[in-house]
Amino acid sequence: MTLLKVDELQVIVRGGMAVDGVSLTLGQGEVLALMGESGAGKSLTAAAIVGLLPPGSRMKGGIIAFKGKRIDQSNRAGWRKLRGKHICAVFQDPYGALDPLQTIGVQLTQTLRTHQPQLTRALLRDRVAEWLEAVSLSADRASAYPHELSGGMRQRVALALAMAPGPEILIADEPAAALDMPLRAQLAGLMRRLAQAQNTSVLLISHDIRTALAAADRVAVMYAGRVLETGPAAAVLQSPRHPYVAGLIASMPGLAERKHRLPVVSGRMPLPGTAPRGCVFRQSCHNASDQCRAERPAQPASGAACFHPLPELADAGIRA
Amino acid sequence: MIVRFAISRLLQAVPVLLLVSVLAFALSAAGGSPSQPGSGPLPERYARFIIGAVQGDFGASLRLGRPVGAVILDRLPATVDLAGSAFALSLLLGVPAGVIAAVRRRSLAGRLAQALSVLAASIPAFLSGTVLLLLFAERWQMLPASGRGETVELHGWSTGLLTVSGLQSLVLPALSLGAFQAALLMRLLRDGMGQALESGFIRFARSRGLRRLSVLRHALANALVPVVTASALQFGSLLAVSMVTECVFNWPGIGQLLVQSVAAADVPVMVAYLLMLGVAFLALSVAADLLCFALDPRLRPPRTAQRTAA
């Protein structure tokens, strides 16, 4: 069953089209990784889904539907009812995600009480302890202030805070980006476990292919405000069809078998508002044709948005 | 913990206090006040000066012939009434206006708060005082133009806050003195609140579906920390700036006393005023630090080593 459907989403940032026609679906219990370089429009897409676009940006077009009901035109009260219990987002910065003036116990209590006002004081205390333990923190950490915790701990607290309302969809925007590699894997695993336990669907935003491929059922790869390829995580890793995605995977050490040097994706991603006519990747693409210059390839439900997709391969494609 | 912090903060104030006292002593020595005959070496005279000051003995006023301590004590309650009301007024006006201006930037109320703050911040106290006087006291005769009105004595401390005419007399000077501070507070809070509202934890709080009021409370608490420090120092400057307002409204406070004393070269009063203001500023800044300490856990020393480890 499709929980979330994003259709032809467009977001404008200071006059430039930063997200230009993105379509995504997220099924019940599914983990979808939205990947791409910084500035590709992943975070804006995520923010639009919870109605928390940063100042200076706004939704220009498209539809966002939750359980078949359009939500992108919700008013303030509508969004508030939706957020937390149904869709909850946790954003990048572990240092800025928690109120520095409140203990984490108070912040957890407040979040739980908002969504379950019937809980008694004693029950709330128990639930706070349970949530802290669920993210491998001892219960007596409830009295700690955010600055007394490490970055990894803070990010786990943020995860507990995001999961505590029992959301049906968790949007995790690079939750581990500021952490060390081992901590990232740990956090991704923890997130997956918690999501599975509550049957929560996850939209994981990441620029790190490794994390995305390890945690996700399906992936969508963004570039310059467009989704260039979607598909099951394993299939995209094994046999990317879009030249950009193939280059991205090939450039990851250890992911693809490599012969001599790591290939690079040449050229720079166009900034919002400067994308060329036709395919947004054509300026960096070796296979670009007249057709790529003239028209923009549509984003298929699954597969590559490309006029000249690479052939399906059994092993990871190497194109040097 | 807070006691230890308070003590250490007070100890830090000692050098500043010493500096102020040296300046005051220099003024006193240069003024050659005859009531404290300048005999003996300087350190001895300084010691005598300090001992006297601690006991409230600054000699006699040259102009009035009475002990300076008594003269100041006569005038102090009026200034405390005025500065206190002005401060309260600036909080009452500035804080809500700042919040509204931050939360509803584009609304009519937000724009109005914005425009009024520009107006209030750009009109000097003597002008706003005179305009208020001309309109409310002269033209419409709604409020008294001069003096404190009736006052009540409480344990030797007079206040106009408990009588109708006392309160009426306070309105114009407090408004004139407090408007500028209210505008400053409003801007400080608007910016702090605006910044807090765009911060990550507010965004995260909203994404968890917290009520708007809870979200605003988180933002306000975070915006308040710098405001507390600034407003404490502002209260100090209210005491100092009040001399203008006191002269315009013929308010019998220490500001007016200072102006009269300077005109008469009444050095002992000036010295006592200087010391008093210095002490008041220090006390206020310590109070502000204690308040911030209570508000912001990041300013407190780490609790124990094991808390921060692992």
Structural account:
The complex is a heterodimer of chains A (320) and B (310). Chain A is an alpha/beta fold and 320 residues long. Chain A has two domains: 2-216, 3-Layer(aba) Sandwich (Rossmann fold), CATH 3.40.50.300; 223-304, no CATH class. Chain A is built from ten helices and eleven strands. Chain A has helices spanning 42-49, 76-82, 104-115, 121-134, 151-163, 181-197, 209-215, 233-238, 243-250, 290-294; strands spanning 2-13, 16-27, 31-36, 57-66, 69-70, 87-90, 169-173, 201-206, 218-223, 226-232, 303-304. In chain A, the strands form two sheets. A seven-stranded mixed β-sheet of chain A has the order 6-7-8-3-9-10-11, with helices on both faces. In chain A, a hairpin with a 2-residue loop joins strand 4 and strand 5 (69-70). In chain A, helix 3 (104-115) packs across helix 4 and helix 5 runs parallel beside helix 6 (181-197). Chain A is globular, with a radius of gyration of 20 Å. Chain B has 310 residues and is mainly alpha-helical. Chain B has one domain: MetI-like (MetI-like fold), CATH 1.10.3720. Chain B is built from eleven helices and two strands; from the N terminus they run H-H-H-H-H-E-E-H-H-H-H-H-H. In chain B, strands 1-2 form a two-stranded antiparallel sheet. Chains A and B meet through helix 2, strand 6, helix 3 and helix 5 of A and helix 7 and helix 8 of B.
